[in-house]
Amino acid sequence: MVIFGFMLNYALRVNFTIALVAMVKTVVNTTTGTNETIAGNDTITTTTLATTTEQSAIAEADKFEWDASQQALMLGSFFWGYVLTELPGGRLAEVVGGRRVFGYSMLWASCLTLLTPLAANAHYIAVVILRAVLGFFLGASWPAIHPLTAVWIPPMDRSKFIANMMASSLGAAITMPICGFLIATVGWQSVFYFTGGLGLAWSIIWFLVVFESPSTHPRITPEERNEIEGAINAAGKKKKPSYVPWKQILTSAPVWAIILTHGASVFGFFTVVNQLPTYMKNILNFNIKENGLLSSLPYFGKYAMAVISSYLADYLRKSGKLTTTQTRKIFTAFAVMAPGFLMIIQVYMGENRTWAVAIFTLSLFLNGAVTAGYLGNGLDIAPNFSGTIFGMANTLSSFGGFVSAYMVGVLTNENPKSYAQWQIVFWILAVIYIVGSSAYVLMGTGELQAWNNPPEKDDAKVETEEGVPLNERGTVAVK
């Protein structure tokens, strides 16, 4: 359910970006005589979505005269709501449970997606508002998985489970060709009905089969429940902290190690994914969006690396070959620092089409290993506040999309076909990748932090760390 959930999560996010190409009226290029659609900073020929015959079947009456600024406003409005609920969503999941937060965020996002064609026909501002609210709901979904993981997944298996979050990459890889086919054969409205309908069906099934913890699952066997709870060392009446130790969290070096490397990783990912088509078109005279397979391969590769590296990481930890701290640092350096060095190679080899595509693809592929590195590290150091920590990291990193787009725009606006300006972009990426990952290598840890179980302000009872079971009276069990 988590794998399909994150696939649909990304589909609900990017469906508008894909459909927008077919939603705006075409403009005839007087130079080439071809029909083109202007979407954001990239020009995408409509032949990527349909043949000329199929295009003629799409009624112009169903399209809109949105200029570039209006399109940019609709595309960007998603992040307005997205950044608002990352931190609250993580904390809410810690209090009421990840099942509710993740499930309801997907449910309401799916309903809004079904209303997108109606909003588009009303006014572009209606789309802006709808996409902002959509982002508001989806923003809470990502950090909600960590609290759910903390009660369902044994510590030595968490890397493998966190890898499921990278199913969003599969969602991107599959959504693009499917949406293209739907637009060409049925019309752009079908994109929202299809993705929204799937999301709605998934939400209903989620609430039927997923529960907050093993102890609340009505169909779990006693043996399975005892195995899970025993492995998590929570086979007792573990009490959740009633407050967040903000001072300890905000002054914790391991927390900032996660935040900084997550910001660097996401900044690099956004820059590569969002600006790659523009770079290919302006510098290499090749539009990567014209090749559906090529544009999907990096996403498949990233998910494959996420799964492979996570299984390897958990094996190394279980076997005792590496400690959790060593594992997290090695895989973080591999996933975030290595792309930094690849960007340095890109500075000198980026004008070569083969080298450029290979380096970008390899960079995204290696980045999938973050699931074995820092991505689930909040569960290691503070499982009680893992949603809060991830919410903090994702809130700050969400601005990476804005900053990277602004950075590339400033550097390449006057001369977008200047390779020298793009070399500056690659140098900046290299520095951010390397500095961010270095911060984690220096400050990161896999050790449980003392503030994970803060003492109750009005309770003088003995507090225990996660993993120490309580007896029936609520005191420390003595063996």
TrEMBL record:
Gene Ontology terms for molecular function: symporter activity
Coiled coil: none
Compartments, as annotated in UniProt: Membrane
Domain spans labelled Major facilitator superfamily (MFS) profile: 21-448
Signal peptide segment: 1-19
Keyword Repeat in record: no
One GO cellular component term: membrane
Alphabetical UniProt keywords: Membrane, Signal, Symport, Transmembrane, Transmembrane helix, Transport
Transmembrane segments: 101-118, 124-145, 166-185, 191-211, 249-273, 293-316, 328-349, 355-376, 388-412, 424-443
Pfam families: MFS_1
One GO BP: monoatomic anion transport
Entry superkingdom: Eukaryota
Membrane topology per record: Multi-pass membrane protein
PROSITE patterns: MFS
Basic and acidic residues bias locations: 455-464
Protein name stated in the entry: Sodium-dependent phosphate transporter
UniProt cross-references to InterPro entries, sorted A to Z: MFS, MFS_dom, MFS_Na/Anion_cotransporter, MFS_trans_sf
Residue numbers spanned by region Disordered: 453-479
Tagged with keyword Transport: yes
Organism of provenance: Anopheles darlingi
Predominant subcellular localization, coarse grouping: membrane
